[in-house]
């Protein structure tokens, strides 16, 4: 599905056409689900469904092409995840002690990078990067957003996003080949 | 800022620049084409990149249907619903306050029937819907009844008229007084003269003897009739002087009582005088007086003292809440 087809699908979806809605769904649903699974794995399906419904309600006033709609969709998902954690913070839950224990990231990767699946790669990104770096890399890689779009979603400048993504790549290079990356 | 923390310096000291990082994260650099040291990172990024769906997924049908329904719902009522701003609520509150202020004063005035006829009729009609009986000039006028004040004071007016007709009022000409004019109108409405009318409504009224009234006799003394106490029983009422206006304002007369039938009637306290309500159609009645300290037989305790707030359900004008 190229950009031209996504743009025409977005125009059709505005009119309520089922083909356009289905095309948008197939283009963005896997990326949306992987992004939300990384942030809130236990409620990923519910958050994604709420994200689609919120996007449908705002589609009448939305202005832009399919690339802007992608950024719009992921910004909604990010807010929904934040709402989920905010509401869960109001309801204390019982957890096991080892579940809440911190697991520091190892200095070097102990798993082979070859043959990783999508979920394993996303999990590795979250394990070795800070939350801020993982957020930027996920939006850049999984959501396929540009630097400017990531800046809009996160409320940062494009230069700040570039610095964060550069540090994230350097960190990943250190983890897998620490002896070859020098400061 | 140290050279390590400097953004531009930090980015230039690395073996890859910003454009390489952009291309790497965008998936435009294959692992084999990646710079030295970034091949594994390129493999990881490529693995994390999620492809689009080629076919339908299990959740596609319900989500597409819900998306279409939400899209149709959002396009419908969004233009019709509009919230009113806080200024509307302020204006509404001010209008309600002003209406309550006007109505409270109007209610007191309407209870005594001192409003202009048109306003009194309107207020009485509105109050009649909620079961409150107020003087209604519209209804009273439809019955073509003479003024209530003339009928109530007819015997006194007749006595005064008799005195005036016998020349006992001095040199003043009282035949043109408004009270006598009303008396003449009432008598004329019945097809009688004033003397005939007065003979019916006040048969015991006689013309006083032609005893000359000296200024000394009218001078109030300690034993004169004007200083008699009110508890003197059997004494004839003092005749009202024709032409003398009442000094009391109608709103200050204690005879104006508002009765609201859907409130539970309570006994009148001992301190309150028994006053009839002058509202037409509502009979005045005397209610038993509850003594403040009456001992009950069963408990042997004193009942609570009667207080104006707990016992009074009929307010005189002086007691009406303001």
Write the layout of secondary structure elements.
The complex is a heterodimer of chains A (about 180) and B (about 325).
Chain A: H1 3-14, H2 18-39, H3 44-58, H4 66-90, H5 97-100, H6 118-128, H7 131-141, H8 147-154, H9 158-176
Chain B: H1 7-13, H2 18-25, H3 39-48, H4 60-75, H5 86-111, H6 117-129, H7 137-142, H8 148-152, H9 154-165, H10 178-189, H11 194-201, H12 215-218, E1 257-258, H13 308-311, E2 315-316
Antiparallel strand pairs in B: 1-2
What does this structure look like?
- The complex is a heterodimer of chains A (about 180) and B (about 325).
- Chain A is an all-alpha fold and about 180 residues long.
- Chain A is built from nine helices and no strands.
- Chain A is globular.
- The model of chain A is unreliable at about 180-183 (pLDDT under 50).
- Chain A has helices spanning about 5-15, 20-40, 45-60, 65-90, 95-100, 120-130, 130-140, 145-155, 160-175.
- The longest helix of chain B has 26 residues, at about 85-110.
- Chain B is built from 13 helices and two strands.
- Chain B has a two-stranded antiparallel ribbon with strand order 1-2.
- With about 325 residues, chain B is mostly helical.
- The model of chain B is unreliable at about 1-15, about 140-150, about 210-230, about 245-255, about 275-280, about 285-290 and about 300-320 (pLDDT under 50).
- Chain B starts with 6 loop residues before the first helix and ends in a 6-residue tail after the last strand.
- Chain B is rod-shaped, with a radius of gyration of 46 Å.
- At the A-B interface, helix 2, helix 3, helix 6, helix 7 and helix 9 of A face helix 1, helix 2, helix 3 and helix 4 of B.
Shape of chain B: rod-shaped
Topology order of chain B in helix (H) and strand (E) letters: HHHHHHHHHHHHEHE
What is the average of the pLDDT values of chain A?
85
Percent helix of chain B, as a range, is 40-55%
Strand content of chain B: under 5%
Order of helices and strands of chain A: HHHHHHHHH
In DSSP terms, counting alpha (H) and pi (I) runs of 4 or more, how many helices of chain A?
A: 9
The average pLDDT of chain B is 61
Q: What is the number of strand segments of chain A?
A: 0
Largest sheet of chain B: 2 strands, antiparallel
How would you characterize the largest beta sheet of chain A? none
Range of helix content of chain A: 55-70%
CA-CA gap between termini of chain A: 41 Å
Weakly predicted, low-confidence segments of chain B: 1-13, 141-149, 210-229, 246-257, 274-279, 284-289, 299-322
User: Strand fraction band of chain A?
Assistant: under 5%
Q: Low-confidence parts of chain A lasting 5 or more residues at pLDDT below 50? A: 179-183
Q: If strands are numbered along the chain, what order do they take across the biggest sheet of chain B?
A: 1-2
């Amino acid at each position: 599905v190229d950009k031209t087809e996504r743009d025409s699908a977005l125009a059709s979806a505005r009119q309520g056409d089922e083909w356009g809605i289905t095309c948008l769904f197939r283009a963005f649903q896997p990326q949306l689900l992987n992004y939300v699974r990384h942030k809130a794995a236990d409620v990923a399906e519910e958050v994604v469904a709420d994200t689609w419904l919120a996007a449908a309600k705002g589609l009448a006033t939305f202005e832009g092409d399919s690339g802007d709609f992608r950024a719009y969709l992921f910004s909604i998902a990010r807010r929904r995840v934040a709402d989920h954690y905010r509401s869960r913070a109001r309801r204390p839950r019982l957890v096991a002690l080892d579940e809440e224990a911190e697991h520091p990231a190892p200095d070097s990767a102990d798993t082979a990078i070859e043959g990783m699946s999508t979920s394993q790669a996303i999990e590795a990104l979250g394990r070795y990067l800070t939350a801020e770096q993982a957020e930027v890399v996920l939006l850049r890689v999984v959501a396929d957003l540009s630097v400017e779009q990531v800046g809009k979603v996160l409320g940062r400048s494009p230069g700040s996003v570039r610095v964060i993504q550069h540090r994230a790549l350097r960190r990943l290079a250190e983890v897998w080949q620490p002896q070859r990356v020098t400061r | 800022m140290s050279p390590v923390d400097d953004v531009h310096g930090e980015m230039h000291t690395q073996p890859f620049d910003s454009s390489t990082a952009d291309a790497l994260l965008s998936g435009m650099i294959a692992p084999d084409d990646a710079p030295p040291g970034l091949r594994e990172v390129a493999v990881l990024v490529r693995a994390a990149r999620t492809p689009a769906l080629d076919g339908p997924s299990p959740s596609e049908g319900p989500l597409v249907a819900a998306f279409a329904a939400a899209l149709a719902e959002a396009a419908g009522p969004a233009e019709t619903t509009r919230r009113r701003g806080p200024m509307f609520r302020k204006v509404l509150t001010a209008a309600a306050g002003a209406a309550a202020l006007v109505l409270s004063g109007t209610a007191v005035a309407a209870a005594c029937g001192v409003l202009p006829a048109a306003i009194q009729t309107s207020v009485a009609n509105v109050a009649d819907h909620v079961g409150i009986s107020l003087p209604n000039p519209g209804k009273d006028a439809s019955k073509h009844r003479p003024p209530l004040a003339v009928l109530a004071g007819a015997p006194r007016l007749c006595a005064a008229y008799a005195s005036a007709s016998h020349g006992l009022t001095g040199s003043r000409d009282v035949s043109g007084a408004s009270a006598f004019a009303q008396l003449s109108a009432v008598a004329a409405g019945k097809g009688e003269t004033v003397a005939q009318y007065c003979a019916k409504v006040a048969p015991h009224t006689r013309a006083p003897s032609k005893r000359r009234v000296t200024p000394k006799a009218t001078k109030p003394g300690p034993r004169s009739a004007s200083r008699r106490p009110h508890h003197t029983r059997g004494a004839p009422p003092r005749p009202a002087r024709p032409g003398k206006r009442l000094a009391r304002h109608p709103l200050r007369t204690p005879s104006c009582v508002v009765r609201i039938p859907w409130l539970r009637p309570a006994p009148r306290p001992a301190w309150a005088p028994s006053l009839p309500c002058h509202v037409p159609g509502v009979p005045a009645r005397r209610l038993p007086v509850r003594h403040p300290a009456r001992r009950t037989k069963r408990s042997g305790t004193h009942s609570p003292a009667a207080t104006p707030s707990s016992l009074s359900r009929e307010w005189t004008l002086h007691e009406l809440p303001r």
